């Protein structure tokens, strides 16, 4: 559905979307990459379990929440592509603590 | 109470709405004046604890009032939900108050043990070690020295509570008047002339429950409300799966998953803004209790103003010069809601405060003469 208008002048790096390896321009807005790659739903809502995807693309609506490298509730529209990151859908509310005993 | 008696309540927050509901349940004809969204609305800014431990340490009547209200909460909530269909998200499974040093814990535990020994109504008090708390909170931080626990402590969604009180009040014929800031109240034949933003009207009996607004209105009626704003700041996190089987004094997890954190107490006049240092301190204390919260985002913050009397205890008063005028000034509108909708409303409907309300909670205790005598 979405496509790039122009070839980016940034280097392509590998990232992983729900276990699938794709390449994307380093530093691009993550939500844009996810939409282009057909990733979805981004998240399910904590109470009703409804499916959601990126909507406002400017940090306001919180519908683009995903898990990045195990860290829950990241706003994909506020994250940039970094080499090697692994992105999963955010299923409902975050289950914490992440990473066990970091205290 | 004579048939057709019109009672006006000034203040549509938790206190006014609870008294209003109690009055209409008793068959009274009631008008509830609510200022509007420019009001300070302590009822809409608070954390939502039904809280017993530590209340009334220096005042057995206040301690007993609080404990009786907490004991009545479960039935009160069930009845309100039956009547309105609104789930108040009420839970009363006890709560911890975390202490961060052994000295703080020893001091607090000593005070609460003494209060428990004095009280006629057990609150289910106990002292909890960090190891005891791990049973409920495996993720608790090692920076917590221990806690005091009280079985009667609970929580409720204060916004749902306010909505339910107003809904039940109106369902029983109470008249809710929004955007009706009361400007003046003038005694007239057989009652009072109330001039509000929605016009002028008569009431036979009057109840001031206007929070900080009581300070302005009370002197017109021979009542006293020496209350001042004490700000609290609240920090809200993103939603998390439910992980709190019991409360922590300054951290409440809502039924939707977000955490409401806050316990600041600041003298800031009528300034409702948030400040970075207080929010930082709130976040620091919250992450000391639950270190995993470092990875959780704060999504909102706000400040709200408590309605504080000089000794922190409620003021209930019937005017000596205008015996049909009553006043209620409290900062515990959540915890005391069953009392306000029950015994207090019954007393106001009957036209007099019984001694066990009138004597310990009279503002006369703030008079210089009273201080000297004591």
Q: Can you tell me about this structure?
A:
The complex is a heterodimer of chains A (103) and B (374). By secondary structure, chain A is mainly beta. Chain A has a single domain (12-91), classed as Ubiquitin-like (UB roll) (Roll), CATH 3.10.20. Chain A has one helix at residues 30-36, and strands spanning 12-17, 20-25, 43-44, 51-52, 65-68, 71-75, 86-91. In chain A, strands 1, 2, 3, 4, 5, 6 and 7 form a seven-stranded mixed beta sheet that branches. Chain A is globular, with a radius of gyration of 14 Å. Chain B folds into three domains: 6-47 and 159-227 and 311-373, FAD/NAD(P)-binding domain, CATH 3.50.50.60; 95-151, no CATH class; 228-308, D-Amino Acid Oxidase, subunit A, domain 2 (D-Amino Acid Oxidase, Chain A, domain 2, 2-Layer Sandwich). Chain B contains ten helices and 19 strands. In chain B, strand 18 (315-318) and strand 19 (325-329) form a beta hairpin. The radius of gyration of chain B is 21 Å and the shape is globular.
Q: Characteristics of this structure?
A:
heterodimer; A: 103 residues; mainly beta; Ubiquitin-like (UB roll); seven-stranded mixed beta sheet; 7% helix; disordered C terminus; B: 374 residues; alpha/beta; FAD/NAD(P)-binding domain; D-Amino Acid Oxidase, Chain A, domain 2; 3 domains; six-stranded mixed beta sheet; four-stranded mixed beta sheet
Average pLDDT confidence of chain B is: 95
Q: What form of chain A results from the Cα inertia axes?
A: globular
Oligomer: heterodimer
Number of helices of chain B: 10
Q: Which fold name is given in CATH as the topology of chain A?
A: Ubiquitin-like (UB roll)
Distance between the termini of chain B: 37 Å
Would you list the SSEs of chain B in sequence order as H and E? EHEEHEHEHEEHEEEEEHEEEEHEEEHHH
CATH homologous superfamily caption of the largest domain in chain B:
FAD/NAD(P)-binding domain
Using only CA atoms, what is the Rg of chain A? 14 Å
């Amino acid at each position: 559905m979405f496509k790039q208008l122009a070839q980016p002048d940034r280097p392509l790096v590998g990232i992983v979307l729900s276990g699938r390896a794709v390449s994307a321009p380093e530093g691009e807005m993550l939500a844009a990459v996810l939409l282009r790659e057909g990733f979805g739903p981004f998240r399910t809502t904590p109470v009703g379990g409804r499916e959601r995807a990126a909507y406002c693309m400017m940090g306001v609506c919180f519908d683009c929440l995903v898990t990045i490298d195990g860290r829950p509730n990241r706003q994909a529209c506020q994250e940039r592509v970094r080499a090697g990151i692994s992105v999963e859908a955010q299923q409902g509310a975050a289950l914490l603590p992440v990473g066990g005993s970091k205290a | 109470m004579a048939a057709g008696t019109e009672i006006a309540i000034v203040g549509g927050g938790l206190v006014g709405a609870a008294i209003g509901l109690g009055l209409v349940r008793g068959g009274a004809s009631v008008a509830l004046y609510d200022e509007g969204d420019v009001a300070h609305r302590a009822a809409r800014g608070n954390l939502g604890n039904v809280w017993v431990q530590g209340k009334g340490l220096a005042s057995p009547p206040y301690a007993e009032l609080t404990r009786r209200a907490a004991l009545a909460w479960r039935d009160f909530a069930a009845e309100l939900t039956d009547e309105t269909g609104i789930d108040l998200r009420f839970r009363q499974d006890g709560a911890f108050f975390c202490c961060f040093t052994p000295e703080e814990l020893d001091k607090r535990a000593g005070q609460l043990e003494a209060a428990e020994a004095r009280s006629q109504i057990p609150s289910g008090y106990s002292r909890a070690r960090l190891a005891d708390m791990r049973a409920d909170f495996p993720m608790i931080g090692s920076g917590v020295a221990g806690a005091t626990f009280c079985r009667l402590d609970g929580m409720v969604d204060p916004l749902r509570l306010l909505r339910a009180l107003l809904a039940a009040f109106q369902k029983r014929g109470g008249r809710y008047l929004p955007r009706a800031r009361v400007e003046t109240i003038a005694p007239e034949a057989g009652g009072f002339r109330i001039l509000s933003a929605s016009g002028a009207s008569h009431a036979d009996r009057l109840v001031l429950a206007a929070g900080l607004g009581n300070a302005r209105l009370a002197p017109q009626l021979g009542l006293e409300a020496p209350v001042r704003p004490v700000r609290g700041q609240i920090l809200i996190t993103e939603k998390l799966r439910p992980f709190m089987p019991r409360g922590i004094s300054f951290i409440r997890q809502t039924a939707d998953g977000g955490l409401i954190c806050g316990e600041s107490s600041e003298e800031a006049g009528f300034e409702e803004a948030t400040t970075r240092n207080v929010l930082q301190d709130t976040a620091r204390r919250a992450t000391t209790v639950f270190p995993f919260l470092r990875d959780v985002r704060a999504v909102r913050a706000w400040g709200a103003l408590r309605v504080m009397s000089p000794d922190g205890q409620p003021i209930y008063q019937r005017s000596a010069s205008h015996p049909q005028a009553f006043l209620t000034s409290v900062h515990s509108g959540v915890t005391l809601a069953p009392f306000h909708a029950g015994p207090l409303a019954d007393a106001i409907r009957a036209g007099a405060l019984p001694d066990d309300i009138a004597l310990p909670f009279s503002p006369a205790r703030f008079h210089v003469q009273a201080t000297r005598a004591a």
